[in-house]
Structure formats: C-alpha cells, structure tokens
C-alpha cells in the first residue's frame, strides 16, 4: 500500500518537479543581430538537439508564388560557395549560364516562337544544367552532417513557420554553427530546377494522387476564401512550374534573418561557454529587415454553411471544420480540451460512438488548430465511413455528439481524464530531446516567450464544464460550418 501511494504521488508531482528543474536550467541570450538563443543543458548523452526556427511560412508568399517558402526550405540544404562547390568561380559562371538560358527559353515561349526554336533553347537550358552539375557535390549539407554522426536531419514548412532540425554529437557544435552561419550569409541555390522537379513530384504524391491531400485542399479552399490559409501550402502545379531562381532568392533574402529566428540547443551544452561560439559564428550574420507588413487579409465571418466535394478513386471520406480563434484567446484552449474529449483515445466520445458502438466509421480524428496557429483557424473533424454506412450517416452522428456537448455538462471524471492526458503530453515534452527543442522555439517565437510552456497546464486545469458548453454553442453552428466530402467514383459517399 505504501509503495502504491508513493507511486501515485510521484505521478502527480513529477511534471511539476520537471517543470521547475527545466525552468531553472534554460538560459536565454539575445545576440546584437536579434537572434534569440535558448540553451537547455542535459548531460544524459553527448548529443545536442538543434532547432532553428523562422517566423516565415506560406502566409508570407506573394500571389502567384504559392509554395515558394517550401521551395526555399529545400534550397537551404544545397550549400554555399565553400560547402558543395568543386570550383566556385567556374560553378558561379555555370549557374549564371543556367539563368540566362532559362530566361531566353521563357521569352521564346512568351513570344510564341517556333517549335524548333523552343526545342533548341530547351536543349541549351538542359545542357547548361548538366555542366553546372559537374562542378558541385549533390546534397552537400546532408552529406557533411551524415559524415559527422547526425540523426534526424530535416526541415519543415508550415503556413506560419519554417524550422531546420538535427541532432549531432556535442563535439560538433562548432561545425553546426559554421554551417548555418555560412548558409544564412552565402546560400547558393544550386540544382534549382532539379529541385523544382522534386517538389512537383512531392505535390503529385501528397496532393494530386493522395485522396486525403486532395480533399484537404478542396476543404481549405472552401473554408478560407480570403485568408492565405486557403491556399495549398505546397503551391499549385502552375506556381511550382513557374518558380525561378531570382524570385526564390528574393524571398530568402527578404525573410530569413537572425532577427526573425530562434535557435534552440537541448543537450550536452555549457551555456556560458558555448554562447561564445554562437556569438562568433551566428553573431557574424547581419541583422535583416523586420517582418514586412504584408497586409494579410482577415477571413470575414462565415454566415452560411459551405459544402464542397471531390470525386476520387478511393474510399469515401468526410472533413468538417468550424472557424475559431487562436491563442492566446482562452477559447482556443477550451477547444483543445474539446478536441481531447471527442477523439483522444479509444474512450473518447466520437471514437467510442462512431467506431465501437455504431461501427459506422473506420476511423475518426480531430484537430483544434488547423491549418495554422498564428491567425484564427479551424476546429476540424475527419472520419471515414465503414461500408455500408455513408458520410451522411457520419455527419448525423457527429452533429449529435456536438449537440450533446452543448446541452450536457461534461462530467468531472471526463474532465479529469483530459487533464491527465494533458499532463502526460506535457511530461513527454519536458523530458527533452528534439521535441523540447521544437516546443521551446515555437513558444519563444510565437506565443510570447518560452516561459508560456510552463503556464499552459494551469490554464487547461481551470477550464470548466460550463466553458465547454459555452464554446461549443458559440462555434459548433451550421452557419459556421464547412463540409468537404470525398465521393468514390461510381457514386458512393
């Protein structure tokens, strides 16, 4: 009995103890160029988990350049004059020859030149690309970090942010700083048109040939008719085919600067010593312009239900969304709680009702902040019917559960279950590694400072059953609803 009591107390107290220990360990520095640096010492292994995050994403793209943030993310791995080039003066000339050949081809196409002339210029363009390939290493940053023991080298672009992450042995700290300082100062967008082909294939796989991707694009286009959250994050096929090096480099030089970024290091670091290395390399990158005022239009309030559908050679699927505020609005946190109540685990309301009891769905999930978090966003519910049930059946059952949320207070036991889930997720983040590095970067860059990560569990613990009812009644309304349906070719829904 005593051991059981001790274990229970440990479960209850451990997150608070971890939070306090972590809060005391974090060191924050701001360089003269505006780069914010967070360091979290953890001596359990001789590894450092890095996350470099910029407040740049799909919402920052100009009309006609959809997906260029994602393209630039790819190009940041292509190296610099000193990383990847076999003969920089010759390679520089070869890259300029590619640009010239591409411009001549574009002019010929615009002027409706003869087919023979276009074929000649296409051949010249391709030959210039082949010559440049001979003068550089493929994927030089990937290869450099791989040769130095990297794990998890990757990057991702969202509507609101772009981040670069990698884990390296701690004795490779200087290597990391030298590489990324060089990239920010001297990025070379080599193999640009080869990467355009890679992105086109990525779009084909994720959006055009993937039923979930195709449905999501149609859904967001219907839900956001003014705000850029409604544009495809990867860009349209026509936009990707129209990418040119000068426009991509212009986007890079406009946005990717130390004063628009946070660098987080979690692991085997000694802050007072290692910040000197950070200053030596990252501090050499000049401050850039502040975030430009792009006048991103606010999405007008939705006043009537919107419905859209696509036909696809796949199983039927359903996607429902409701407009809602974003953080730090308290209602956004209430929506997080509703998200857990509806679909977190096998005992959640929608999973239990749709999948287990009614056997009407193969799966069901929800998200309380889609597709981004910087601006007002959507609470979404997605589900796939189990034959012979239909998407109409799922809609009816989902709306019944949402009405139940409005009309019946959530029980204390159910609220406690959500709080336990929140605590478990919180504990997983606090335990360190790449997840903690990313979370700290998020909070520092977007949520008013990394300290907010220690405050949000208390917010969730104060959310009441009455607040859940109020928020459900306010936002889960037909006029605030967007519904997208995938119809199987042949007519089944």
From TrEMBL:
**Domain (Peptidase M16 C-terminal): residue spans on this chain:** 246-421
Carries keyword Transcription regulation?
no
InterPro entries, sorted: Metalloenz_LuxS/M16 (IPR011249), MPP/UQCRC_Complex (IPR050361), Pept_M16_N (IPR011765), Pept_M16_Zn_BS (IPR001431), Peptidase_M16_C (IPR007863)
Keywords associated with the record: Coiled coil
Domain of life from the UniProt record: Bacteria
SUPFAM superfamilies membership: LuxS/MPP-like metallohydrolase
Question: Which GO BP annotation is one of this protein's?
Answer: proteolysis
Give the Peptidase M16 N-terminal domain ranges.
36-82, 141-235
Name the PANTHER family for this protein.
METALLOPROTEASE, MITOCHONDRIAL-PROCESSING PEPTIDASE SUBUNIT ALPHA
Q: What is this protein called?
A: Peptidase M16 domain protein
Lineage of the organism: Bacteria, Thermotogati, Deinococcota, Deinococci, Thermales
């Amino acid at each position: 009995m005593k051991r059981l009591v001790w274990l229970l107390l440990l479960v209850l107290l451990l997150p608070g103890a971890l939070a306090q220990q972590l809060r005391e360990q974090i060191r924050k520095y701001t360089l003269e160029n505006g780069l914010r640096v967070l360091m979290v010492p953890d001596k359990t292994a001789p590894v450092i988990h890095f996350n470099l995050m910029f407040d740049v994403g799909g919402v920052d793209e100009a009309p006609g350049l959809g997906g260029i943030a994602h393209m630039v993310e790819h190009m940041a791995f292509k190296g610099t004059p000193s990383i990847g080039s076999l003969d920089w003066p010759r390679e520089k000339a070869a890259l300029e020859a590619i640009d010239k050949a591409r411009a001549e081809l574009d002019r010929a196409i615009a002027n409706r030149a003869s087919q023979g002339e276009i074929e000649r210029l296409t051949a010249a363009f391709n030959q210039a690309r082949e010559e440049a390939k001979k003068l550089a290493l493929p994927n030089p940053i990937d290869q450099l970090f791989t040769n130095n023991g990297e794990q998890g080298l990757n990057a991702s672009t969202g509507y609101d942010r772009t981040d670069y992450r990698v884990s390296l042995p701690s004795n490779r700290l200087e290597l990391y700083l030298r590489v990324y300082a060089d990239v920010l100062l001297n990025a070379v967008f080599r193999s640009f048109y080869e990467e355009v082909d890679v992105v086109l294939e990525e779009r084909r796989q994720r959006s055009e040939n993937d039923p979930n991707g195709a449905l999501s694009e149609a859904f967001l286009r219907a839900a956001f008719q003014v705000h850029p959250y409604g544009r495809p994050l990867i860009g349209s096929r026509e936009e990707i085919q129209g990418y040119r090096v000068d426009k991509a480099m212009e986007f890079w030089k406009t946005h990717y600067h130390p004063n628009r970024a946070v660098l987080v290091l979690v692991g085997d670091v000694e802050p007072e010593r290692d910040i000197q290395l950070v200053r030596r390399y990252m501090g050499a990158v000049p401050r850039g312009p502040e975030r430009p005022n792009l006048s991103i239009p606010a999405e007008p309030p939705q006043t009537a239900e919107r419905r859209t559908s696509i036909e696809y050679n796949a199983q039927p699927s359903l996607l429902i969304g409701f407009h809602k505020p974003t953080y730090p609005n308290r209602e956004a946190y209430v929506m997080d709680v509703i998200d857990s109540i509806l679909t977190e685990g096998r005992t959640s309301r929608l999973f239990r009702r749709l999948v287990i009891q009614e056997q009407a769905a193969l799966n069901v999930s929800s998200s309380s902040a889609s597709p981004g978090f910087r601006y007002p966003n959507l609470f979404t519910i997605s589900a796939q019917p189990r034959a012979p049930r239909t998407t109409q059946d799922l809609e009816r059952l989902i709306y019944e559960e949402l009405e139940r949320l409005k009309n019946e207070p959530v029980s204390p036991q159910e609220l406690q279950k959500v709080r336990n889930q929140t605590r478990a997720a919180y504990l997983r983040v606090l335990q360190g590694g790449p997840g903690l590095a990313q979370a700290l970067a998020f909070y520092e860059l977007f949520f008013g400072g990394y300290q907010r990560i220690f405050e949000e569990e208390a917010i969730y613990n104060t959310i009441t059953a009455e607040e859940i009812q109020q928020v459900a009644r306010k936002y889960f309304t037909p006029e605030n609803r967007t519904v997208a349906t995938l119809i199987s070719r042949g007519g089944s829904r």
